[in-house]
């Protein structure tokens, strides 16, 4: 497997970028044309070679555990997984005797790059708290790729994450799904084809932020009125655009472009997925009713501390719940949190997810899922590692609209893989190796494959930074 230090990875992406620039400069028509998609992903998988991981306990997130199994990775994809697999003669062989293998962890709720380290005021770029509705802002325009926390998350097995705006507004803006790879630009981290999310927030946060400013909303009913007014404007914008197209799309009569309404109309058309910060059961039910009124889909409630109270409603509507394992009680709307929350949502047939919303928790999401599973077992539920692994892999992928590409170890999917030193639901387990699209980006035994942000180079002692 190719070995890359962070500077080497950066040099590789830089040379690719320069080549692209030279090509564009040689074709004036292409250079002057507007891109088909604004701020499109420029991600390219890093170089990899065929590898076969043998003698492992494999949790695929798609079926039963495989004992003494093998996994073949080639050209950035999972080629085969099972008791035995045929591997090409030149494939690197990784002996995983005594180890476990899982899909890469996916964090549905991250603010890495938005609230970057060091945690000073200059790095607080997650909340545009200037208006209750800021659907026009995009999280990717605040992401700082050099945030040292990305590498720490990679060392915890996280290969994909959804970066969300904060929860100070009723509607906070677009989220972005990133590959956890070293990069100079956020565009080169963007997961190709991943739909955008829209961050919404209900409950205490927006009414506190704007109530303190003597502005609306200052109450729960003000929150609800604010959402409805925004969706009414968005529906009119959508309908005006549709009428303009039907009439022949005369460019002189095109409705004025509105970035805020453009994002909201994207939700109404099904292109953008709603990611809804919401704690209380009654408010989750109201948000489901709101979605029904304006005919859009909620992909996941985030935090969802009282999800267990409406687990049947979540299961019947197909709305996922992205939850902590045991955070509760830090404000009134979080008082009714219980440790068996995720397990109860799972038992009801719902889409249970364990998320972080924290730069430290994202480094140990396997342990958070283990805590949630243990709480369910104590409550008498029949849960297995095959269940818990879904809470941090395929279910997050489903809620983010990327489950056809990643989230499970199945032939044809992206080779996002973690090799664990032990059962990942043990407090003693650590990621030994982490692959993103088949490229080995982290190796606990090789300091050259423990990426360090450029921001830290020259700050840390050379023995630590290298």
If you had to describe this structure to a student in words, what would you say it looks like?
It is built from 13 helices and 16 strands. By secondary structure, the chain is an alpha/beta fold. It has one domain (6-465): Metal-dependent hydrolases (TIM Barrel, Alpha-Beta Barrel), CATH 3.20.20.140. Strands 1, 2, 3, 4, 5, 14, 15 and 16 form an 8-stranded mixed β-sheet that branches. The protein has an 8-stranded mixed β-sheet with strand order 6-7-8-9-10-11-12-13. Helix 3 links the parallel strand 6 (105-110) and strand 7 (158-163).
Task: Spell out the blueprint of helices and strands.
Blueprint lengths: L5 H20 L2 H5 L18 E8 L7 E9 L2 E6 L9 E4 L4 E4 L1 E6 L38 H7 L2 E6 L7 E9 L17 E5 L2 H8 L8 H27 L12 H10 L4 E6 L2 H14 L3 E6 L7 H7 L2 E4 L17 H7 L4 E3 L10 H14 L6 H6 L3 H7 L16 E4 L10 E6 L2 E5 L18 H4 L1
Parallel strand pairs: 1-4, 1-5, 6-7, 9-10, 10-11, 11-12, 12-13
Antiparallel strand pairs: 1-2, 2-3, 5-14, 7-8, 8-9, 14-15, 15-16
Helix pairs in contact: 5-6, 9-10
Short characterization:
29% of the residues lie in helices and 20% in strands. The chain is α/β, with parallel strands linked by helices and 466 residues long.
């Amino acid at each position: 497997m190719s070995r890359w230090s962070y500077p080497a990875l950066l040099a590789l992406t830089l040379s690719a970028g320069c080549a692209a620039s030279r090509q564009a400069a040689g074709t004036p028509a292409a250079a002057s044309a507007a891109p088909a998609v604004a701020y499109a992903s420029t991600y390219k998988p890093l170089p990899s070679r065929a590898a076969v991981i043998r003698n492992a306990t494999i949790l695929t997130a798609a079926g039963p555990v495989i004992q003494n199994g093998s996994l073949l990775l080639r050209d950035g994809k999972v080629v085969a997984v099972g008791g035995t697999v045929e591997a090409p003669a030149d494939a690197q062989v990784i002996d995983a005797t005594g180890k476990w293998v899982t899909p890469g962890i996916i964090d549905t709720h991250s603010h890495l790059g938005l609230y970057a380290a060091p945690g000073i005021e200059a790095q607080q770029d997650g909340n545009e708290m200037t208006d209750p509705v800021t659907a026009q802002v995009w999280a990717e325009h605040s992401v700082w790729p050099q945030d040292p926390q990305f590498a720490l998350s990679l060392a915890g097995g996280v290969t994909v994450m959804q970066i969300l705006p904060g929860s100070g507004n009723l509607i906070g803006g677009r989220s972005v799904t990133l590959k956890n790879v070293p990069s100079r630009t956020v565009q080169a981290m963007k997961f190709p084809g991943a739909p955008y999310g829209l961050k919404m927030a209900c409950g205490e946060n927006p009414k506190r932020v704007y109530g303190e400013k003597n502005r609306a909303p200052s109450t729960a009913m003000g929150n609800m009125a604010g959402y409805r007014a925004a969706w009414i404007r968005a529906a009119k914008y959508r309908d005006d655009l549709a009428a303009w197209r039907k009439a022949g799309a005369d460019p002189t009569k095109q409705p004025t472009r509105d970035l805020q309404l453009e994002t909201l109309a994207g939700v109404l058309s099904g292109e953008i997925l709603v990611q809804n910060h919401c704690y209380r059961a009654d408010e989750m039910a109201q948000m489901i009713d709101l979605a029904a009124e304006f005919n859009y889909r909620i992909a996941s409630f985030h935090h969802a501390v009282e999800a267990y109270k409406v687990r049947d409603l979540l299961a019947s509507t197909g709305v996922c719940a992205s939850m902590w394992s045991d955070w509760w009680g830090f404000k009134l709307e979080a008082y009714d949190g219980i440790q068996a929350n995720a397990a109860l949502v799972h038992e009801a047939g719902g889409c249970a997810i364990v998320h972080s919303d924290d730069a430290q928790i994202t480094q140990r999401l396997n342990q958070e899922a283990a805590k949630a599973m243990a709480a369910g077992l104590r409550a008498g539920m029949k849960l297995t590692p095959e269940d818990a692994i879904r809470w941090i892999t395929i279910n997050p992928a489903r809620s983010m609209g990327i489950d056809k590409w990643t989230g499970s170890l199945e032939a044809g999917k992206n080779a996002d893989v973690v090799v664990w030193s032990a059962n990942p639901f043990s407090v003693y387990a650590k990621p030994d190796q982490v692959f993103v699209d088949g490229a080995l980006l982290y190796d606990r035994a090789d300091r050259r494959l423990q990426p360090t942000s450029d921001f830290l180079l020259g700050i840390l002692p050379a023995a630590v930074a290298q």
